[in-house]
Write a structure and sequence with these properties.
Length: 104
């Protein structure tokens, strides 16, 4: 089964130019693919993967790589960035509804 994003693509996206963290990045990449597939109810292991799905996977894997512990804002924990949640909603065929985080 082909992955929608390669380790090399993720490293370029995350601006990682060394090999020391390849095992960690590979784990983050696999977890991000699984997360996005479960969140959208779709499989992205074929050759025709939407660019939005690739961006969502790489963004989430990069976020988890850079933020190795939960981000606490007031009393809530933000584990999935807003732009990734928006991409997931679009991949499901909908849109992310405005919330306190997006209104001014």
């Amino acid at each position: 089964m082909a992955e929608p994003v390669t380790l090399e693509e993720l490293k370029a996206f995350a601006r990682v130019d060394f090999d020391d963290d390849d095992a960690t990045l590979t784990t983050m990449l696999a977890a991000a693919v699984e997360f996005i597939e479960q969140a959208t109810g779709k499989s992205y292991s074929d050759a025709d993967v939407p660019e939005k799905a690739k961006i969502a996977v790489m963004s989430l894997a990069t976020h988890w790589y850079e933020q190795r512990e939960p981000v606490v804002i007031d009393a809530s924990v933000a584990n999935v960035p807003l732009h990734v949640r928006s991409l997931i909603a679009q991949l499901r065929g909908g849109v992310l509804e405005p919330c306190e985080e997006t209104t001014e």
